[in-house]
Amino acid sequence: MPLGTLDHTPPPFFKQGLSALSKLTLLGAMAVLLMVTDNRFAMTAGIRSALVTALTPLQWLAMVPVQWGQSAGNRLQLLETAQAKAESTARALANQSARAGQVEDLTLENKRLRDLLGLRERVSAQGLAAQVLYDAADPYAHRVIIDQGGTHGVQAGSAVLDESGVLGQVTRVHPLVSEVTLLTDREQAIPVLNTRTGVRSVAYGQPGLFKHELELRFMAGNADVQEGDVLSTSGVDAVYPPGLPVAKVVSVQRQAESAFARVLCEPYAQVGSTRHVLILPPTGAQLPAAPVTAEIKHPRGRDKTRVTAKPH
Amino acid sequence: MIMPPGKHLLLPANPLFIWTSLVAAILGNMLLSMSGLGRAAWVPDLLALTLVFWNVHQPLRVGIGAAFVFGLIMDVQQTTLLGQHALAYVVLSYWAVSIHRRLLWFPVFTQTGHVLPLFALAQALVIAVRFAGGAGWPAWSSLLAPVCTAVLWPLATAVLLAPQRRPPDPDKHRPL
Fold this sequence. Notes:
The structure holds two protein chains of two kinds. Chain A is of the alpha+beta class.
């Protein structure tokens, strides 16, 4: 029943504004325009951040029952589960404390060796702890929302780790929250280094029906990759600090008809269920600036010579 | 006044209730996405359902412009391309407004069959936009989403029309 059957004011007969079809055309065109600007030019970040911040109270409200459910679930878990978890944590702690003792020793030794070699000290990053709020609802993408944003000092492009390995990368920063794209997202790639052979390659997200994995693309059919190889960040990308565990190779298929081997890896990070993460700013910010290249015209004006000038 | 047979005259809709129900639908969508269902593709879209409901019942209050704004909110909430849900909701809302005079003459369960193609079209639009953006095919379970949404139509009718079904206050002195 249209508006106004029992309302106090009669329905407007003539002044009904634009027709539905013209509204459809206008707003449809606007939506397409927005999609293009969002995809091609980074001009809509302001609108998005404003809307996200305006939606934040609603999000907190929606989180309340979810958190109640989680805490109720935690309380109702079986005693055996809790005991097993505590035992495994204690074991992991014992292992780690043994290693932590070695780290001091090794750091000192490493520093002396590097001094001897005259190498620059490795970049070290100051981390920022954060908590995963929820999965983004987009069924196509693998993203999570974390509770630290631009006001807490998060930078876009930062690496995100969980307790077992690299989880992903911060792709959008809003004032109060940030979006993290997980390694298993189809559009996410991470440069890795095979710790057994030292070969560098790039791992791409490979979301599957049941299991989400990473794929090492363009590995030659005879490349030295084995099941069980550990991949760590290579550090050549100026984003991820080197040496962080990323994934383990789980299957290598070499097909006669293809020049490439199909290498699938399983990420160490718990991409489905992680709660607490660490944000490391891009290492590129700590590196010295790239040398300035100035183009000098050749006197003849034919070819250009590139001259590298050292910054003073 | 010509009324569909067996229908009661309803009280006028409260605009506050309309907008509150739409905000509650956003909240419901957020809750569904946060509560472990996460990125499952079959989850019903409560906001689309509520939007179509009010487009059909109160087309002069909730129209295509509102659909556009709520679409943008959905895009931001789902972290998708800005404008993708806006486009889908604008088309959804246009269709809902154009069938609103016919739809309400049918019984509620038949209406479900009439609104199913709307949700299917909106879903197809989203999939087409994603496909154009190079996202590949979605999971098969995304075919279930429009069905899940349409199945909730009788429930939405029961809940969202409840405030208007209240009998008016009887007045002893003025019986009419």
